[in-house]
Amino acid sequence: MDAVLLRIMKPGWLSLPEAGLFLGGLLWVLSLTQVAFHTTHGVVMGYWVLTTGWMGFALFQFGWYANLLELLAVLLMYRYPNRAMVLAVMGVLLAGQSFWFDDIPGGETAMHVVQLGAGFWLWYASMVLVTLGVVFGADEGKVASPSS
Fold this sequence. Notes:
This protein is of the alpha+beta class. It has one domain (17-141). The protein has helices spanning 2-9, 16-31, 46-52, 66-76, 81-95, 118-137; strands at residues 35-39, 42-45, 103-104, 111-116. It is elongated, with a radius of gyration of 18 Å.
């Protein structure tokens, strides 16, 4: 009975960190198709935030750059696990700055953020899942050295 329960909880083809990375990536892609922010001038979609968010550095809004930190952490997680973990945690902390967004600059007037949309929550959940996948999966890639 315990072996069956263990097999259900941890299938041999997908480890828990890999599942976190997969689900995090899936949520990230889904967030692009959803409303990220409800504003006084309408809604802002996730794909629009992805394409224009890099300009946030001019307004001291750095949340978009969490995407780059998370990607770099995933790429480095097996080769440099400690650095990858630091980058992933820094990415989640940087993504947390997005909760402070009050206004999205527009052409003539700024759009005041009224409510966070599903796309925002999917994006933030993806950041957390990817970070958990990196933190708990970084050591799995190490090959044990043969003992003499």
